[in-house]
From TrEMBL:
Pfam families: DUF4345 (PF14248). Keywords: Membrane, Transmembrane, Transmembrane helix. This is DUF4345 domain-containing protein. The chain crosses the membrane at residues 12-30, 50-69, 81-99, 105-123. It comes from Gillisia limnaea (strain DSM 15749 / LMG 21470 / R-8282). InterPro entries: DUF4345.
Length: 131
């Protein structure tokens, strides 16, 4: 039981990231579903193409996180990728808020979650690579 609890705590940042990023990817890649969740109307093929590319990028990164959870030898690289992914997204959102204004609530949640997960992932990396 203790091993399972330790496994959950060690992988918590990756599990939380997966639970947020995979559904987000699917929403981004589904032009008919997107307006229901975000204030985005996909009216051009170019926008649809860009969103599907972002969807696949998110899913590809999620596969690395799954690999890091499944095979401990990949845990460190999965955690480093999680830090880069989350803090890059949060930085982009912060830049947009400064230059473009305040977005809808979903994106406000996004910046808070991304900064939080990114910082927690740094903590995890330090904690589990020094043991």
């Amino acid at each position: 039981m203790t091993n399972k609890i330790n496994w959950i705590f060690k992988n918590l940042h990756l599990l939380v990231s997966l639970s947020i990023v995979v559904p987000t990817a699917i929403i981004y890649g589904s032009p008919t579903v997107l307006p229901e969740h975000l204030d985005i109307k996909v009216e051009t093929i170019d926008l649809s193409n860009m969103l599907k590319a972002v969807m696949c990028l998110y899913l590809g990164i999620s596969l690395v996180w799954i690999l890091g959870i499944w095979k401990t030898v990949y845990w460190k690289i999965a955690t480093q990728l999680n830090i880069l992914f989350m803090l890059s997204l949060a930085s982009g959102r912060a830049l947009s808020m400064i230059t473009d204004g305040i977005p809808t609530g979903g994106y406000i949640f996004g910046i808070i979650a991304e900064f939080g997960i990114g910082l927690y992932s740094i903590y995890q990396l330090k904690k589990y690579t020094t043991e």
